[in-house]
């Protein structure tokens, strides 16, 4: 497995449906579906000013990538679980009479030899047309979903999206953007990482470097499943991930800027939100308390140490981790700790948002339906 960096993605022969041109309808409902390596998630939402209001949602652990590392293809059981979940999504879309939608698949379907065949099966059996998106677009959508969390004081931004099958890292220089415009400058990246940095009215958001590493919570866990003890397995996973991110070298040739208070890291994933829930001791998950929370490196390290001390059975029973996350949390925090060891910060912002929100923002922006001139 090799990391995909910048424009090194291999084109995938998956047709993309082009929406017909239409006048923006402020009452229209939009939907976004993210079929990942571990989960199938969907949001149905309505535009609301410069944001959107969620009408309905769906999330199901389908473990699509189970066995993929060994066999190179999606198993029959994984496919059947996923198709069953997608049938539920289809019913929700029909019920709400959704007019605009984008349905995407990511790393597991990119890597699987039978990924294109699986897309055709989904279309036949559910009527849903999914597209396998490239790593660059996955990274871009994760970035724009986090735009509301970007601080006015942030000049150097690292967005981290730890998925089931891959991890996307994007480093953005905002030092040329006026502080009030920094969040909106991030949103403008919906049109691509190579968009003109001097475009009016929000110039200057510059993507310094980005990478898609084909290691996420599921794939990293599977690679070290034969190591029994938590401590050695955690250390091996951390070292392996660090080796795979060696090509990610922002500012390598021009020298590092001064970080400190002007540096912000935003983490968007189930791993990061689970760490936040454990830090807050939430026995019942509360998105309002988690989304936007800031944590320090020391606070993250303290939670990771708790996880290691619990052992597998303790993590399984811990209500803050949850039944769908306990088997994957150790590999997730191995990735997270690697990043905060390299870039220590007191400003890790937790984002309970990601690909689905990015898809919705991009759709609504393209339709000219959002306020604040984000197009």
SSE topology:
Blueprint: E1 4-5, E2 30-35, E3 39-48, E4 51-61, H1 68-71, H2 76-96, E5 100-105, H3 107-111, H4 115-126, E6 131-132, H5 135-145, E7 156-162, E8 167-173, H6 182-187, E9 206-213, H7 217-223, H8 230-244, E10 263-268, H9 270-279, H10 287-290, E11 294-295, H11 297-317, H12 329-342, E12 348-351, H13 355-366
Parallel strand pairs: 2-5, 5-6, 7-10, 10-12
Antiparallel strand pairs: 1-9, 2-3, 3-4, 7-8, 8-9, 11-12
Helix pairs in contact: 2-4, 5-13, 7-12, 8-12, 9-11, 9-12, 11-12
Q: Which overall shape is indicated by the principal axes computed on the Cα atoms?
A: globular
In CATH's first tier, which class of the largest domain applies? Alpha Beta
- Helical content band: 25-40%
Looking at the overall shape, the CATH architecture of the largest domain is 2-Layer Sandwich
The low-pLDDT segments are 6-21, 196-202
The CATH homology group name of the largest domain = Exopolyphosphatase. Domain 2
Helix/strand/pairing category? alpha/beta
Give Rg in angstroms.
20 Å
Strand order, main sheet: write it out: 1-9-8-7-10-12-11
* Discrete helix count: 13
Number of strands: 12
Number of structural domains: 2
- What proportion strand? 15-25%
CATH fold node name of the largest domain = Nucleotidyltransferase, domain 5
Q: Roughly what is the average pLDDT, rounded to an integer? A: 87
Distance between the termini: 36 Å
The SSE string, one letter per element, is EEEEHHEHHEHEEHEHHEHHEHHEH
Biggest beta sheet attributes? 7 strands, mixed
